[in-house]
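ok so for the tutorial part 2 we go from a plain amino acid sequence to predicted structure tokens. step 1 is just haveing the sequence, like this:
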Amino acid sequence: MDDRLAKAQVGAWVGIVGNLLLAVVKLIIGLLANSRALIADAAHSASDVVGSVAVLIGLRAAERPPDEDHPYGHGKAESVSSIIVSVLLVFVGLEVGYASIKSLFNPIVAPEFIAIWAAIGSMVVKEAMFRYKYNLGKKLNSQSLIANAWEHRSDVYSSFAALVGIGGAILGEMLNISWMVYLDPLAGIFVSLLVLKMSYQLLMESIHSTLDHVLHEEQTVALREHIEQVPGVMRIDQLRARETGHYQIVDVKVGVDPRITVEEGHRIGKRVKQSLMQQFPQVRDVFIHINPYDDPASPHQGAAAEQPRSDM
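step 2 — the prediction. this is what the tokens look like for a chain of 312 residues:
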């Protein structure tokens, strides 16, 4: 777990430092070049700094061991940090859109050419950050890192929109086409819509994961096949695997020979738990219910009552 946390924290710090530098550079150039679109893009990058900090805090909290108040661990801290990131993006999108719409009603001057280079540089850096953070999030099964990666991708789109708006405004001034000067603030509005769309998608996914999402049957095939191979397991009566942040907790009922002793049934359940946790790194804990196996085809077996739960 320590290795996972260390790698995830490096990814979060890459986002914090990278976004902070980009936000400062784009804000300065945006003010000097008089580009509303680039200033909006800088605000987007600034929000990513806060988002990366939230991810870093969530990652650390998620790795805390279970305690008396949180016996299933703190894995949902990552989902909570993803929700925080999403909500921050909503506010940024609204603020950027408001500022861009407001600028349409004021005298507009085309931005300076340097704003184009700033937008292009931002696109290159943010795409590199997206690919790094997304691949790392997939590798570590970290929802918050993946959400943070999509923030970087939304920045790529916003920088491209800013580039189009800035370039169009400069070209319009060169060709003496007055309406094209408004492409810069219009690009700012488009950026805000992209941010709002991305934040909504991330928010829905984060809420879905926070509400004890249970894996679908097709996602538990490997778990079932592995349990069925454990000596002594005659049938799987029920299996639920719920996601808690980056790890899973499995709750399974298995049928065993009703003629064996309680101790032998306990040993079978223990083998199931140990085997699952060794074979599947994402499985953090397993709760076993030992049931007497009842073969309906056998005339000598009636419906056996379910035995008390054996949690291991």
